[in-house]
Design goal:
By secondary structure, this protein is mainly alpha-helical. The protein has helices at about 5-30, 50-65, 90-110, 130-155, 170-175; strands at about 120, 125-130. A hairpin with a 2-residue loop joins strand 1 and strand 2 (about 125-130). This is DUF1572 domain-containing protein.
C-alpha cells in the first residue's frame, strides 16, 4: 500500500485542489453578473462569458469523458460551434458550467496513483496522465482568468476583488501573522 505522502497521491490531491480553486474564482465571478452580462462582447475579437463557458464545457466533456480509454478529442465535439454566440440564459450557462466541472472532479477523483504514468491521447498525441492534467490546469486557468477580467470590466466600479485588493497587502500580511 502506498503512503498518503507519495508523489502520485500528493499530485492528484493538489491537482484537485488547484481545479477547485479555479472553479471557485469562476463561480464567484459568475454569481456577481447580471443576465445581460453573459452575452456581452467587449470587441469583435473577444469572447463573451457565454462563449468562454461553452468552450470550457465542450473541452471538459471531450477531455474528461472516458479519460483513460479514449482520445481526449471526441469525434462528436464541434469546437467551432463553441465559439458561436447564442442567447443562453445565465441559469443555462451556470448549469452547463456545473456539469463540466462535475465531470472534471468525478474523473480526477476516480484516478489512482498508478494511473499517473499511463499514456493517454489527445488529438492523437500521446500524453502521460500527469501531462494531460497539467495541460488542463493551464488551459482552464487561462480561461478563468479571462472570465475574471471580463467580469471586472463589466461590473466596473461595483467589482469587488476576489483576492487581496490593491493596496490591501499590508493589512492582509498583518492578518496572516
Amino acid at each position: 500500500m502506498k503512503s498518503t505522502n507519495d508523489f502520485e497521491t500528493v499530485f492528484l490531491k493538489e491537482s484537485i485542489e488547484t481545479f477547485e480553486s479555479m472553479k471557485k474564482l469562476g463561480d464567484r465571478t459568475l454569481e456577481r453578473l447580471k443576465e445581460e452580462h453573459f452575452n456581452h462582447v467587449i470587441d469583435p475579437e473577444s469572447n463573451s462569458m457565454e462563449i468562454i463557458i461553452q468552450h470550457m464545457c465542450g473541452n471538459m466533456r471531450s477531455r474528461w469523458t472516458n479519460f483513460l480509454t479514449t482520445d481526449g478529442e471526441k469525434p462528436d465535439r464541434n469546437r467551432d460551434q463553441e465559439f458561436v454566440q447564442g442567447k443562453r440564459t445565465k441559469e443555462e450557462l451556470i448549469a452547463m458550467w456545473e456539469q463540466g466541472w462535475t465531470l472534471v472532479f468525478t474523473t480526477l477523483r476516480s484516478l489512482q496513483p498508478e494511473d499517473l504514468l499511463r499514456t493517454i491521447t489527445i488529438r492523437g498525441e500521446a500524453h502521460t496522465v500527469i501531462r494531460a492534467i497539467q495541460r488542463q490546469i493551464s488551459h482552464y486557468g487561462y480561461h478563468v482568468g479571462q472570465m475574471v477580467f471580463l467580469g471586472k470590466h463589466l461590473l466596473e466600479d461595483s467589482w469587488e476583488s476576489l483576492s487581496v485588493p490593491r493596496a490591501g497587502a499590508p493589512e492582509r500580511n498583518k492578518q496572516d501573522r
